[in-house]
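User: I'm curious whether this sequence folds into something compact or stays loose and floppy. Could you predict its structure so I can see for myself?
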Amino acid sequence: MMFHGIYTQMIGPKPTTTPTPTPTCPSIDEITSSMEKLFDVQTKILLAKLADMEARLNDLTSCKPMAPSELFMGIYENLTIFDDWILLYNKPYNHNTTSKELKDIANKCNSNRVVVGAIQNEDLSILNVAAVGPTRVLYLNTTVETPEEIENVQWHLESGRSFGFRPIENDPDESPRSELFLSWTIDANYGGWRAGKTTNLYQNSIWHKVIYCMPTF
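Assistant: Here's the prediction. I'll summarize afterward.
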């Protein structure tokens, strides 16, 4: 009995074991609730991403390029004629253009912008050379030597001589590009005269002088 007490003191009492709890499966309602919560979170994330994508697309569409008819004032080569332009004048180069014709054209244009140009074949839809300017260029009173400068274009209308345009000479050491010149003889007994580099068009019926009224943007 003595030894049994000593043994018990040396090794201590016999440990007790705790039974392992039996795992329980979640109920169908718990699984459904968890899935709904997860779905709600993912849906909110997806909707937020879609909203961000829509905002980006709206930004891109708002930065659409300038429409074809929304041309700034200036001189153009190989300019496409667009459907919203109204043709007010179309005569061969051998036609005797008058200052009265130009004033009448200006009165017919209901905007403040016109396209003055030359086309080699009237069946085509591209102007070889043209300039966009205010309607008042059709009734200027300037000489060829003292043109009016409008947006980097020199416009002139001198009765008995010429109507037309040419680029501004920004560099006095360089000659302006002749392909950007246009000149119609005004108030004379003959037609002509220039469409870009092509000159001496007094009796020419292939080249045409055209004026369009362009919508104001």
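Summary: Helices lie at 2-11, 28-62, 99-108. The chain is about 25% helix and 25% strand.
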